[in-house]
Amino acid sequence: MRLLVDQNLARRVAAALRDAGHDAVHVSERGLAAAEDDEILELASSEERIIVSEDTDFGALLARARALKPSFVLIRAAEPLTPEAQVALLVANLPVVEDELRDGAIVVLARDRIRVRRTPDPAVGLMAGGASEPGSAAWYRLMASNAAGFRSVRSRGHAEVTEVTERCRQADRSTR
């Protein structure tokens, strides 16, 4: 998978994803360490990459732009995940959502759950839903009502992510 790792994730996340066989680059490797989200979205689109981030703004930007792509993976956790745990979560679960990401989707990836929402085809969505403005209440209702484009499943690797997180906590405690 071609991935663009956002600035709010460590550079070693991109390196570890490369080690796992993905074509992953960190935004800093493209000279965009302090870039605005729009620039990152443009880069991902031009390089046909999937954005991986903890920044929730990308979903709204895609809706506002009426963009089918690039796809976006949002890593969510009640408490912060270490870069190693983020990589474990991604490596375990990207294959589960590969088809949706290839076709255009927003994936929310948590320790125990994956939520997938296909990005609506702007031309079809506007005609079917009557939503004239991206970001409008009608636009969001259209996205929410797209039941065929939404699924939620238990994530893979929950035990591995929990184990990596616990090992990192123990290492942190032992260095204090």
Unreliably modeled segments: 124-132
Work out the helicity level. Answer: 40-55%
Beta-sheet strand percentage?
A: 15-25%
Q: Give the biggest beta sheet.
A: 7 strands, mixed
Structure classification: alpha/beta
The N- and C-terminal alpha carbons lie at a distance of 38 Å
Number of helices, where a helix is a run of at least 4 consecutive DSSP H or I residues: 8
Helix-strand sequence = EHEHEHEHHEEHHEH
Quickly count the domains. Answer: 1
Widest beta sheet: strand line-up: 2-1-3-4-5-6-7
User: How many beta-strand runs?
Assistant: 7
Rounded Rg = 17 Å
Q: Tell the overall outline.
A: globular
Structural description of this entry:
The chain is an alpha/beta fold. The chain has one domain (2-174). 44% of the residues lie in helices and 17% in strands. It is built from eight helices and seven strands. The chain has helices at 11-19, 37-46, 57-64, 83-93, 98-103, 122-129, 137-145, 158-174; strands spanning 2-5, 23-26, 50-53, 72-75, 105-109, 114-118, 150-153. It has a seven-stranded mixed sheet, with helices on both faces. Helix 1 runs parallel beside helix 4 and helix 4 (83-93) packs antiparallel against helix 8. The longest helix has 17 residues, at 158-174. The chain is globular.
Topology:
Blueprint: E1 2-5, H1 11-19, E2 23-26, H2 37-46, E3 50-53, H3 57-64, E4 72-75, H4 83-93, H5 98-103, E5 105-109, E6 114-118, H6 122-129, H7 137-145, E7 150-153, H8 158-174
Parallel strand pairs: 1-2, 1-3, 3-4, 4-5
Antiparallel strand pairs: 5-6, 6-7
Helix pairs in contact: 1-4, 4-8, 6-7
